[in-house]
Amino acid sequence: MIISSTSFPNLFKEHPDAVTAIVCAILVFCGWLTLNLGWLGISLLILPVAYVVGGYNSAKDGLMTLLQEKELDVDLLMIVAALGAAILGLWQREYSFIVDGAVLILIFAISGALESYAMQRTDRSIRGLMSLTPDTARKLVNDQEQMISVAQLQIGDMVLVKPGELVPTDGVVIEGYSTLNQASITGESLPVEKTVGDEVFGGTLNGNGALKLKIHQPPESSLIQRVIRLVEQAQTATPPSQQFIERFERGYAKVIVIIGLLLGTLPPLFLGWTWENTIYKTLIFLVVASPCALMAAIMPTLLSGMANGARSGILFKNGAQLENMGRVRAIAFDKTGTLTTGKLEVVQTMALNQDEAQLLKVAAAVESLSEHLIAEAIFKAAHQLQPKNAVNVQAHVGQGITGFLDGQKVIIGKASFIQDQTHQNNETLHQMSQQWERMGKTVVWVAYGEEILGIIGIADTVRPTVSKMITGLQRLGIKSISLLTGDNEQTAHSIALAIGINQVYAGLLPEDKVNVIQKLQKQYNTVAMVGDGINDAPALATASVGIAMGTTGSDVALETADIVLMSDRIEKLEDAIRLGDRAGRIIKQNIIFALSFIVLLLIANFTNQITLPLGVLGHEGSTVLVTLNGLRLLRN
Q: Which terminal Cβ of the chain has fewer Cβ within 10 Å, N or C?
């Protein structure tokens, strides 16, 4: 692979913290290697550079916090501990201590890179949402088109949306008829018919008809703009658990610094210690009290769990969300593309006086020339029957489609359209049609000449593993499982009944899904949301854990989510919860061990039972042990 001369500057510009951590790691390794090879002079030149490269941001942040907020944090404590190790190394001529200090700095540099990555994810999510709406709109002035910026539109302006174009902003149809693909906003699996008086949403895709809209609210108040604000607010808000950790870190740093100052000044005055012995013990204290083992108690475990999940097709974007998965007690699912495949299929047929194969062949002869999603489903179902192609095919907007096959007229569409064309009716088919519609199916009627052939039921089918997964989640202790969808009540309840979900929220807009998630969080604290569409992005961002489908998921959903189920294997959700539970248990074990060992080393230091080499050995040894314990999560 050839790397251009501008690659590194671009990489540093886009990911400065990651580059800093990598450079620091290389310097630390080179410093350690040259020291062990006996090249002391070179090592003493390299290691200070590693201190500066890796510790600059932490030192700056720590000093800014101290000067502006009058608070001590772990960043500053890390710098003091690292410098203390370096001073001890030079003083005692134990130069390996300088390497120990550099390792402390490297750990914090890696932490800063991970935090920076999380912030970049938020920015990408917002940019992805903004790309859903066009920058310009066709404003009508005296029936003449003028291309203007969407931001310039005002209430009362008239806008023209041509076939195949994105709707620029929310408006009301005042002229025209079309079908709009609203999946990006509401998650509905079928295009929705829009005519005079109906509201349309910015970011939805217009079908075959031209629409004249009247703007009834400012563009910045459109639904898609509200979605953007919801995602931004949810992703930038600091969760309570993170706030607690930050408070704990600052409290810990204060205690250690205060004790270090007292230890470095009072013993010579009140206990008769020599200043040399006092400084020695103080520096040992700063080394053994450094929170390296506490840090290692968490990150190696989470990284191991993330690697384990990746092997199983579960992509964790944020290590903290792996731990959160073990705490999940409520899960909300989107319907279309999540619990269902997101693809329309022929699921039932009922023929009169003809076999069902003939019914599909006649319907497919006409639908093969249409690009409608329903037409694609019918043609796919009849493809192996090798249907003929009809002629003189004509679409009837909002009603159906007609054509001629073997000299006879074929009529396909709604029941009312068939009756108007054939002047016939069939009560048996009507009863079955109503029953299918209550089950959430779209019903297509088929007539050949003057004869009604039958009906075809089309639906978005449920993923085959969903029912078993719902049962498995209940066994894992999930107390609440909900279905959140923009689809209608009948369809939502029929899907929920089929897979074993009894809590259904239907007809929801993106902001409604956020309200449901917030309601569940008040009741169950840790809530997961599983979705795939743009309309799910605010709920994914608001939920304690956002989970997206890897294949069918929209770019915005994939960017917003904390976890991605690769290959759309929704049954992997159970594995993710088990992995999160294991990670939580191991982290607790590591924290207890790390704190206990720090206390043990501190006691040994104050009772003259430890020297600096033993202190460093104990400190690094405890870090290695908790790291190894965390690596157990690599195994299934």
A: N
334 is catalytic: yes
Q: In degrees, to the nearest 5, what angle opens at C-alpha 184 toward C-alphas 500 and 334?
A: 15
The mean pLDDT value for 415-440 works out to 86
CB atoms within 10 A of CB 523: 11
Flag whether 553 is in a domain. Answer: yes
Q: Which residue has the higher pLDDT, 449 or 284?
A: 449
**Rg of the chain taking only CA atoms, in angstroms:** 32
Reading the block at residue 392, the tokens are 């003189």
DSSP 8-state assignment for residue 70: -
Give bridge partners of residue 140 from the DSSP assignment.
145, 158
Residue whose pair of structure tokens reads 């998965």 in the numeric block: 325
559 and 489 both lie in a single domain: yes
CA angle 231, 232, 233 (to 5 degrees): 95
Q: Say whether both 319 and 345 belong to one domain.
A: no
Q: Name the residue with higher pLDDT: 318 or 194.
A: 194
pLDDT of residue 318: 67
**Lookup: tokens for 380:** 């796919």
* Structural domain span for residue 421: 341-462
Cβ–Cβ < 8 Å for 512, 536 = no
Residue 175 lies in a domain: yes
391, containing H or E segment: strand 391-396
Q: What residues pair up with 211 in beta bridges, in sequence order?
A: 161, 176
Q: How many Cα neighbours within 13 Å face the side chain of 177?
A: 5
HEC string for 234-278: HHHCCCHHHHHHHHHHHHHHHHHHHHHHHHHHHHHHHCCCCHHHH
Q: Of 17, 157, 170, 334, which one is the catalytic site residue?
A: 334
Give the domain CATH number at 415. 3.40.1110.10
Is 119 part of a structural domain of the chain? no
Q: For residues 118 and 67, is the Cβ–Cβ distance under 8 A?
A: no
Q: CB count, 10 Å around CB of 130?
A: 13
Which residues contact residue 601 at a Cβ distance below 8 angstroms, ignoring those fewer than 6 apart? 288, 610, 615, 618, 619, 622
> For tokens 């049609």, what's the residue?
433
